[in-house]
């Protein structure tokens, strides 16, 4: 991967991805664009950027759709004709566990805005740069080194695996994200840009909670390995961090 952009990098899985991409020598990345809502408060990310010149921090609240063109321009100014090889839609929110008697309309709309509308619209904004990367790397097989979009979904978005109920805002917004992945995979097929949904595993983060079985440092290297393994056969599919295919 030459250039990769990840949303929601000030903490959790996004920050873990940045750490491990900077560490891993076999995925030496020329440009890592790490977006976050408040760069001034992103101390760990800022300290990494001071040590690694290939890490660029960009301010982005994914709900601010009007700022997308500006973000694309900032990336374009750095990558030039090389385009953007990989867009990772990672930023996400999860309303508290809700049974039907507790669910509120604003939880539904907020989870939808961040978890499904934003990944779709950000991907739309980056299509020219993704196409550019795919063209610039015509000799490479389809995959994340050429041009791809990874949507960080969740097993809770799987309708087939829902044996517990509740969680309406989160489940529905991630099921919607999976539907977006599937449609994008067809819409971007001709442009040779792959689109895949990934369940990153249940990980100890602010969202995953303390009882989660996986540490960030256990799951993230496997997620990065999965990025490297993604090929045409994964396009439009739903996979977990260890490569296992998941039901919709
Ligand atoms: P965290 O709650 O630790 O981090 C969420 C990240 O998303 C933060 O960087 C947060 O930024 C960012 N974010 C939220 N809203 C916005 C917004 N409007 N604009 C920009 N950034 C925003 O969660 P995780 O790291 O655990 O989750 C990352 C992704 O992985 C999510 O999509 C989540 O659904 C998914 N996931 C996580 C699992 C887990 O077990 N941890 C399991 C399955 C899926 P800020 O600090 O500014 O709020």
Automatic annotation (TrEMBL):
Query: Which Gene3D superfamilies does the entry mention?
Result: NAD(P)-binding Rossmann-like Domain
- Which terms are listed as keywords in the entry? NADP, Oxidoreductase
State one Pfam family annotation: adh_short
Q: From what superkingdom does this record's organism come? A: Eukaryota
Please provide, alphabetically and separated by semicolons, the GO molecular function terms listed in this UniProt record. Answer: carbonyl reductase (NADPH) activity
An annotated GO cellular component: cytoplasm
InterPro entries in alphabetical order:
Fungal_SecMetab_SDRs, NAD(P)-bd_dom_sf, SDR_fam
| Family to which this protein belongs | Belongs to the short-chain dehydrogenases/reductases (SDR) family.
Concerning PANTHER family, the annotation shows: NADB-LER2 (PTHR43544:SF7), SHORT-CHAIN DEHYDROGENASE/REDUCTASE (PTHR43544)
Q: What protein name does the entry list?
A: Short-chain dehydrogenase
